[in-house]
Amino acid sequence: MKPFLFSILLCCSLLSNAQVLPLREQARVTDEITADRINNLLPQLMQRTGIDMWVIISREYNEDPILKTMLPATWLSARRTTMLVFYLNPANKQLEKMAIARYNVGETIKANWDMQRFPDQWDALMNIITTRNPKKIGLNTSKDFGHADGIDHTHYDQFMQKLPAAFKSKVVSAEPLGVAWLETRTEREMQYYTQLVNMTHKIIEEGFSEKVITPGITTTDDVVWWFRQKIRDLGLDTWFHTSVAVQRSDSNSFEHLRAFSDRPKEDLIRPGDLLHVDIGITYLRLNTDIQQHAYVLQPGEKNAPADLQKAFAQSNRLQDILTSQFVLGRTGNQILKGALDQAKAEGIVASIYTHPLGLHGHAAGPTIGMWDMQNGVPGSGDYPLYYNTAYSIELNSSSDIPSWKKSIRIMLEEDGYFDQSGFRYINGRQKQLYLIPRVVGNNAD
Questions:
Q1: What is the pTM of this model?
Q2: What does the pLDDT look like over 339-377, one tens digit per residue?
Q3: Which residue range forms the structural domain that includes residue 401?
Q4: Domain end residue (candidates: 181, 213, 239)
């Protein structure tokens, strides 16, 4: 087996050339990263949250979202009823990783089921619990995070019926541990996250160019399916259906529902259009989520109109305002309020709907606004900001465009990372509109 470092370097090299690893190599890297997370990250998170035993139970084809992030790359689902137990010994701080199964769950989680002694799987689970005598038994139940609410009703009832009475009071929601597991990015993951975001940027750059778009012929839906096909041809996948929308000098005003779910499918792209794309790809279990803009030049134009450029710069400023609010321990709602207050003071008509990013596209962690909840989000918005976490900085600002006699929204979304050094964009951000066609030097004269 190749060392992890060689694999990750190979991965980075291939991604920078708009290629991805072969499936076999992807599986190897995925399993190495998962093992690193379980062996090195999980004990830290269990100590931080005070949950010394984490029990994860899931049925085949009805998988707990957290369980799916722990399975080997070659397991496309759970098997029968899959039970995992993680126990952090308080005496020696050693982590036991057990599967109450007939076989190991990959190389990291070993089978721990004596079927001769305990023919019933639930009895084997109860034996592990009673012999370890944990202080807290975490189960994946959560009101505020669907990601951490993965145990189904049937399994919860079975667990509580089988659990000895003396242990029932020790059962707690594993929400803080589950969310921490999902939101925390490791050094090894961040080694290739930059290339993944870079690849997303490069795909948008190509799609929003004359290579793909011919004004008067190409429709927004043509571009959507070009993106989808391009991503698939690269050996990647999307976690949501790509969207492409138009704002132009007409009577239509901006509406969130129209922008995100009620767009015309066959909107013909014309000179003078402001294009918007929302795209996200998945690779090695991590996700990207990006929104950018392009302007279609009219005959004789060398750049986008000045008022469109000014509007774009205003949304860049809103990004700066928001990310300046990223302080350890602040909740999503506190960050949202601080950013909106500052934007209002600067005369920016803002809407912020930023979310965590990582093992899911809309991931677990502090919700920083929703487009229809600008006064805060109860529950997930009250969750605090931790280090080593990634976010999709998603927002828009409204600007008057005198030449169009209307207001528009510049909707931006870029992926960033927060650690002890502060906030940074994982692979930069868009700072000016793409132009279609591209204008190079003085060749446009």
A1: 0.90
A2: 999 999 999 999 999 999 999 999 999 999 999 999 999
A3: 186-444
A4: 181
